[in-house]
Amino acid sequence: MGHNIRNKLDKLTGGNDSLRRRRQGTKAFEYHVDCLPDAAREAVQARMARQLLAQSASLPARATTTSELVTGAGGEKVQRELALYRKCPALQEKKLRELTDSQKAVGDARMVLVQEVLRLMDNSENGGLSMKRKQAVEFIADASVAGTLPDYVQRAA
What we know:
- By secondary structure, this protein is mainly α.
- The chain has helices spanning 2-13, 38-54, 66-69, 75-87, 89-98, 101-121, 133-146, 151-156, and strands spanning 20-22, 29-31.
- A two-stranded antiparallel sheet has the order 1-2.
């Protein structure tokens, strides 16, 4: 049975050497997840994502620049406002004091969700398997509806 699986995987790589490599020191081959059929690839990605989300929430978030997060219509205006707030701490303090406890809680919850999306997108943290932003957001949204997220992420959602 293993022989047939290996033959099938070899066919799925289409002769692309970047999708297949020999595991160092063994006879085994490793295949990139992209050569799998869609259903199998999605199952592997979902399993890896669940494992990653289940890890401790104490891991540091990946540093992200504002320009990575603020895109689309109005993005330049938001970036200018953020730059102004950074230059003027008094203005920033005034704006923060105006926020209600509910608004602060919503902001904190959004940051938890953003952090988890970034973790799913960062292939160095999850064994080389990275998701596109849309995939990561959809995975967290679907898991939220199903109630299968770790508690701290479920509360944030």
